[in-house]
Amino acid sequence: MLSQYKVAVVQAAPVFLDLDATLEKGIALIEEAAGNGARLIGFPETWVPGYPWWIWLESPIGGLRFVQRYHENSVQQDSPQLQKLCDVARDNDIFVVMGASERAGGSLYISQFFIDTGGSVLDVRRKLKPTHVERTVFGDGHGNNLKVYETELGRVGGLCCWEHLQPLSKYALYAQNEQVHIGAWPTFSLYRGKAYSLGPELNMAASSVYAAEGQCYFLAPCGVISDDMVEMMADNSTKHELLPPGGGHAMIFGPDGAPMCDYLEDDAQGLLYADIDLGAISIAKSFADPAGHYSRPDVTRLLLNTSPVAPVEYLDAPPDREDGMEDPEHGADAGAMAGLTIVK
Q1: Which value, in Å, is the radius of gyration of the alpha carbons in the chain?
Q2: Which CATH number belongs to the domain containing residue 68 in this structure?
Q3: Would you say residue 113 lies in a domain?
Q4: Total structural domains within the chain
Q5: pLDDT, tens digit, for every residue of 285-319?
Q6: What is the span of the domain harbouring residue 172?
Q7: In which element (H, E) is residue 149 found?
Q8: In the chain, count of helices (H) and strands (E)?
Q9: pTM higher than 0.85, yes or no?
Q10: Which of 25, 134, 161, 285 is flagged as catalytic?
């Protein structure tokens, strides 16, 4: 396992509602990061094809004009677009965590695509519970990918946006000895000066606290609202006021919660870098390990359900009998195993 290496986080706007163009921009950022020696890069929440900001600006009926385009430009698993990301990760020997709107059937999910340095998709983790009006667009994730991934770069995990205000979800990752965390943020432009809880002060504080609580490195990529995005979604002065350009606030925090680089201007687009040393985590852990020596499982414990729940399950039932009796080849036990109770 590599214990000392450079990481990068993205602060940039997508090419809004354009899957292919946003991926091309993302590929250029990945290649730039790798060219500067980074071994891991993190992207903002739903960076592809952009966060659906209209849900915070107008009525559901008003936002319907964006729905079909947003679906069509969301990322599907096993798609040519995802393969492009895998190829660039492999060709540049860099671990990519891409934030995207994921399309599966007729539903969308706030997802993070974990792609290792060999170009394989380790997992597609879905945000467990979309926040507030996000639930008008996105479905829920499951506990099967609330986990930390063992990689050549250490134990890597991630959460999206206000999942960092969910104590139990955070603890689930702390308890898996997470070393590098990708905390994806969409931007901090919305309702600027009107809602402190949505601004950078609180949410970067939550990021720093996560790093200190979990004694891990916290990579905080963050999106930017471009002028083009404002013009597309803000068709009156009120919406312009609610969603101004900018909002970027990307950062990298060490396992003691300290910032490891300088902030960019909030409307600037680019990459931030830091050199991390996984060995330094042991120093932070010596002070407080929330799932180890600093825990009290006899007093408080977390129950984590990692079983995925499918909306449809297909059961193999025994052959039908017109007389209602059990099939002689399968017997009553076989019927019960198939989810069918046969009453004689």
Answers
A1: 23
A2: 3.60.110.10
A3: yes
A4: 1
A5: 999 999 999 999 999 999 999 988 888 888 876 65
A6: 4-287
A7: strand 149-151
A8: 9, 12
A9: yes
A10: 161
